[in-house]
Amino acid sequence: MIEYRIKLCWKMFDIYSILQLFLLGITSGAVSTTVMSIFEIIPWKRWGIEGVYEWHENQILVKKYFKDIFSREDTLNFKGIFLLHYINGILGSITYVFLIWYLIEGGMIGDSFSNLFMAGIVYAIFLWAVTLFPIHKPITGRDPLKHPLGYGPLFYSLTGHFIYAIVLSIWVWVFIL
After folding, report:
1. Is 19 within 8 Å of 94 (Cβ atoms)?
2. Over 29-86, what HEC string results?
3. Phi, psi (rounded to 5 degrees) for 148
4. Distance, CA of 98 to CA of 93 (rounded, Å)
5. pLDDT at 101 over 80
6. How would you label 55-65 residue by residue, b for 16+ Cβ within 10 Å and e otherwise?
7. Nearest to 33 by CA among 80, 95, 91
8. Whole-angstrom Cα distance, residue 112 to residue 152?
């Protein structure tokens, strides 16, 4: 057991493995965020920017901090919205890739697709809750549970995170195992 833990620690500091995992995190994050963004067109078409929580938050952040860089204050700034959306998606994916790799190498979960899928679903719920409830209202001024558009945007936000995690899990399963 001790020998295995030493081997695990040594492998965790192998720069080649770390670089591979980092690149996998970037690519899987970009792909997963793209698929999630395509899905989010549905609530955007239906309710506008306020119907997509993540885009609404990003729009306000861009208007507040980057208005001189991207565009006029009175327009939707899709460049800024998607720049922040992809940064968040890629950072979340890098975290997921390293976490899954650590759990598999440590023998805490098996390397089957069903394990990755379930880990992805749990991660989706975690990301959704952590990035929505403490963040959305302070940025937008809108409580996600008392939104004027009802529960539709909340449903689409959770579903979008599930889609992100499923695509992420498939990508990681194909390339890490």
Report:
1. no
2. HHHHHHHHHHHCHHHHHHHCHHHCHHHHHHHHHHHHHCCCCCCCCCCCCHHHHHHHHH
3. -65, -20
4. 9
5. yes
6. bbbbbebbbee
7. 91
8. 34
Q: Are 47 and 149 in contact, with CB atoms under 8 Å apart? A: yes
Interatomic CA distance for residues 53 and 91, integer angstroms: 18
The DSSP output letter for 106 is T
Are 59 and 49 in contact by the 8 Å Cβ rule? The answer is: yes
**Are 39 and 166 within 8 A, CB to CB?**
no
Dist. CA 122–CA 110, nearest whole Å: 16
Find out whether 62 and 70 touch, Cβ atoms under 8 Å.
yes
102 or 23: which leads in pLDDT:
23
pLDDT of residue 69: 66
Read off the amino acid at residue 83: L
pLDDT score at 8: 53
Span 67-84, pLDDT tens digits: 666 656 567 888 889 999
| Residues 46, 55, 157: CA angle, nearest 5 degrees | 65
